[in-house]
Input
Amino acid sequence: MTGIAADEVEEAPAGGQPGHLLAVGLCSGQHVELLQREAELGEPAGGVGHRLVRPAAGGGGGDDVGDSRAGCGGGGEQRVLVLVAGLELVPADQRQWARHFSPLAYGPMADRPVRVRMAPSPTGPIHVGSARTALFNVLFARRHGGQFILRIDDTDLERSTAADEEYIYDGLGWLGLLWDEGPFRQSERLDLYRQHAVRLIEAGHAYRCYCTPDELAAEREAAQREKRPFRYSRRCLRDAPSERPSFVVRFKVPGGAAIEFEDLIRGHMSFASDLIGDPVIIKSDGFPTYNFASPIDDALLEISHVIRGEEHLSNTPTQLMIVDALGYERPQATAHIPLILAPDRTKLSKRRHPALITQFRDWGYLPEAMVNYLALLGWNPGTEQEIFTIAELEAQFDLARVQQSGAIFDRQKLDWINATQIRALPPAELAARLAPFLPGLDSARLERAVPALQERIKTLADGRELLAYLWQEPEVPALSAEEKERLAAATDALRAAEWAPEPIEAILEELRESRGWSRSELINPIRKAVAGGNSPPIHHTLSLLPRAEATGRMERAL
RNA sequence: GGCCCCGUCGUCUAGUGGACCAGGACGCAGCCCUCUCAAGGCUGAGAUCGCGGGUUCGAAUCCCGCCGGGGCUACCA
Output
């Protein structure tokens, strides 16, 4: 077989644009001249085979796709996507990619379907900032009938971990922020970025840089000494010491350009290219940098709106220049959402504020409350509504109403929203949510505990505290003679009671009236004897305890 | 240092030239309700709208300068 099996090929319209899909097919082994150049970039660090194809003559069909078997990673068929122009072959183990490489998807900008993405890097526990970014993306997508894509930006070999990636899935799953496509992992598409780098080099938009870290540090220090902004000297553009074994690829920033774009939150942005030094796009280990991989993937995934944290605002011009140089279409717009701040107004950091998103689950927060709070952190509907269901958020969310300044994460407000949402839950539902936090209660007792808890817990975990008396006998209280008299009367009256809240309440009420005691006179000593300190209303407090245990505690205090 | 973003009660925010001696919410204080704790109701304290100049009859809202905070300036994202 030569390259592409006919029955696997989808023909693209003739004269496809650079970067457009030409065909989807099966590659069983081929290689072309690009392979040599690629070899110069060093051994690929990833495990995915990279197969290269010669440009199709005249931008035509699949027949022209390369037919050499020389370098296809030692046999084995591989599903690939073939692109015109730079002639990249994309390992298409994720079949989903094929759908979006349809030439038909390239429409006029205004008609672009809404496609947004969240692209976290698994380099630490995912925190509330990432979760909110995901939320805003999801809400925007839902509001506009678009797609939400999850991409794992794991191009930092040193810091990315599988555990952190799991936290991302776990956290997003818990919040119900499910993605329509993905997850795509950048580490699995290293050759894709490498091909793009080759293409840029060939076009004169990028070059190899052999400077050592020491040399770069020296340049930086010199710049600092002379009090001028540091930008890479471009020494390797003029005179590269190409005998050195290690190099990076740098993007050659065009001079004198103004990079302009529309940000849905900040408005019109303009940056002078002259202030930007040539950024590294391929590291010496063969991995792309964030500023290179991200815009490529955004373009290939046809992301229409890039919604991300404000820390990326300054990166945007660099990424846009790369997109332009590659001949890809820019995202329709960006939206740089403000940072979430710690109480001291510094940026929330993974180190100092280890707010793992799933930690909130363990603390007893409802995912819908978390979503509600996160949505309000930096966004408001313009009305005075504060409590939202996810459906309401999806209907009302608007990037234009997102704040421009950073917001401090306020646990107390979260608590209030959580408590409010807990109170709004159907009792049976609350029982189910409470179950993991009260393993000591069987489902029947749990259901009976709900009325006692529902309006007095801020988090599900609070239930444990409020019901602590169930498992922990209080100290025997020192009661006055009057208190003992009332307690004794209550104990007697309850001996024959049906052991449920309403009968207990009725009996105590009857006793209280017949003796002329106030409620507190009768109930306080009972509570002291049975629960010690605070507890739910006394009839609930009592009925949640086995009768023998309850009356036992009362007798003990007499 | 350079470039960029931001700046209304403690916190989240409403506010886009007059209806704002700045509204809501959380939190806080008090009162009511009440068997403790909550929930609920009512009341209250809390912002010279970062500062200084302008423009205007009139500015939180427009302009300029400054200050403060943050981000980027990495072979981290």
User: Anything to note?
Assistant: The two ends of chain A are 94 Å apart (CA to CA). The mean pLDDT of chain A is 81.
